[in-house]
Input
Amino acid sequence: MNDLRYAFRQLLKNPGFTAIALLTLALGIAGNVIIFTIFNALFLRPLPFQDGERLVNLDEVAPKWNLEYTGVALEDLVNWREQNQTFESIGAWEDTSFHVSLKGEAQRMEAGRATYDLLDTLGIVPVCGRTFTAEEDKPRKGLVALLGYGFWKRTWAGDINVLGQTLSLDNVPHIIIGVLPPDIGPLARGQVIVPLARLPDETYGWYLEGAGRLKPGVTLERAREDLRRIHKSMISTRPVNEITSPRVTPLRERLLGDYRPVTYVLITAVGVVWVIACANVAGLMLARGLSRGKEISVRMALGASRRRVVRQVLVESLLLSALGGAIGTLLGQASLSALVRLFVNHFPAWIHFTMDWRFVLFCLGTTALTAALFGLMPAAKMVSQVNLQGALQASGSRTSGSANQRRSLNFLVVGEIGLALVLLINAGLLVQAFRNLQRIDPGFRADNVLTYAVAVPRIKYTNNQHIAFFEEHLAQVRALPGVKAASATTIVPLGGHSGTFFEIEGAAPRLKDEQEPVVLMRKAFPDYAEAMGLTVLSGRFFSETETRSNGVNATVVNESFAKRNWPKQDALGKRIRYPGGHSPWLTVIGVVKDIKHYGFDQPMRPGVYLPFHFAPEREMTIVVRTLIDPKALLPSIRAVIQKRDPDLPIFQIKTMAERVSESLWLRKSYSWLFGFFAGVALTMALGGIYGVISYAVGQRTNEIGIRMALGAQRGDVLRLILRHGVLLAGVGTAIGLFGAFAMTHLMRSLLVGINAGEPAIFISVPLLLTSVVGLACYLPARRATRVNPMVALRYE
Output
């Protein structure tokens, strides 16, 4: 307690030192608090399920189709469920949406279809009511529904009497049998869950997300082998299983794995900032400790042991660290809250960035480690090189410190500069990679384009009435003031995937092991190329002729499809059809330029467009190119819909500019966050070198005065001080270049579209750093040139 009281007095006695040290530590710890909280929420906190570590994601992979994930076919899932030896249970779901009319307002609600055993597999227990039965998971018998917790609270105010009531989904009444808890993991988007209610032999393709609960003690590899055995045994009755195979992944890794490399990179960045902060404060304490040499000598002369003095210094360090940690934790939490508000729509709904016991342990551990890191070196240096006789006999009130102590200060500054350069170079690479992505031509024009979806219920629009609806709706939208073009498609760019295969007329049969990529297939109305801003390389897009129900069977392909199937040939006039020989041939009437459909950093697949009438869909995305602000048209569009059908909502309302921004949000976020941390590191490093040079100038005041008295000019003194700073910067820069080059290889997966050893970055950033360091050295050097020789000599 005596040590603690003395430490408080020392900190209050030196407010400038205390303020700088606390600010430095707070910045270093705040960054770690932010990133650790994110890492904890994503990868350390248990999944919101019982025994979540035994849950796995089930999918299928098809290298021949160039698909890493195909989804799960229901027939495969049923056989895995019935014949496996390693799973307690297996279930699956698919995302969907329904029309719901609540309080007189039509809405499109996100929902899910799940097998009867999925909730038991995930360990989800309803808040009230029950889950589905196996009987309800059959066609025409599954007219029951489970409500999401938030939907229940908003609509029924948490009334338990909701059980047994009827909810109309797409004009079909469903009986409410239960309410789900708040945290339901991958099902969190669904406000309503209904039974899948489909037969295994129905042709739906690969469309399910599977989940399995491993038996206790079963390893992932054993589970994979078990499913592979079952999958291969089905080849005789299901030949396609020779192409596909099961994929078993820990559930957390499947849901959140995309965030892992980014989080690790940010952890490295804030770790470097923290080390720089510790080095900065260690340098401050070492410089301050050197000026306390006489005090330490008196203490030891009066009987204090080296251990006692070290303890006192460490108590000061711990106090500083505790105060800095408290400020840094508050600053980090406030900053994190702001970040979460910015990105709340991008993280899964079941992720919660809140404090828990891991967070408390991290903060306590960081505080203790910080105290040790910046406290041990100064304490050891203070007592290890104290010369009692020399210090007690010194006439001055301060000591200049040994050469070894000054070298320790220089070592800290060199390390700070090197680490700051590592972050600056990699931040420059990340930001440049992001800016390069923004400059990529996506193949479409995102400016002034509004998109929204309309889904026409089957029970209300029978006998192809949905075809007439979309035709009439597009005609009415085109007539609105401010509309340049309007069309519709099944999938807009950056809007998902729907794949199939096509047979090429006259093509040689593919070899057994030859890759046959899945073709991206979209259906569209006329004017789609104009509305989306596609580039037609040859031929033309669909006209009204091709989109009539009795029109010409035509198709438009992208350049990847044309190059793969007709290399060095003109694709126009070539014919394709669905495999099997029963579908009509489709004539290629146009070739469009590839677009960045899957993301700006993803390659394009072979793709085709089919006329809407060739296979009409009930859900379409309307694309409107405008002459005014796209969102300004929404009231008019809603009025058009309301006049035609008051129970029909529009949903997924976004401009194409918003879709582009959302596709880049993760890259933008970590690039600028990394850049921010690099900027903090640079500021700290500059503060460190400024402090060291200022300390050196202060310690050499008498020497400088003597030099000037003997004839040295101000320029000579300026060069003398600057030489010291430039030497430190040069050594730090050399070390930083090696570290930066090593780190770029670890970040290679994030540096898409840019050379990891980009010469412009590796040359410009060190030059910029050296210039800024030179400025930090110049200020104390300029002060040194103003030393009055007479005052210095009189002092000496």
About this structure: Residues 306-343 form the longest helix (38 residues). The mean pLDDT is 87. The CA atoms of residues 42 and 265 lie 15 Å apart. The longest strand covers residues 87-102.
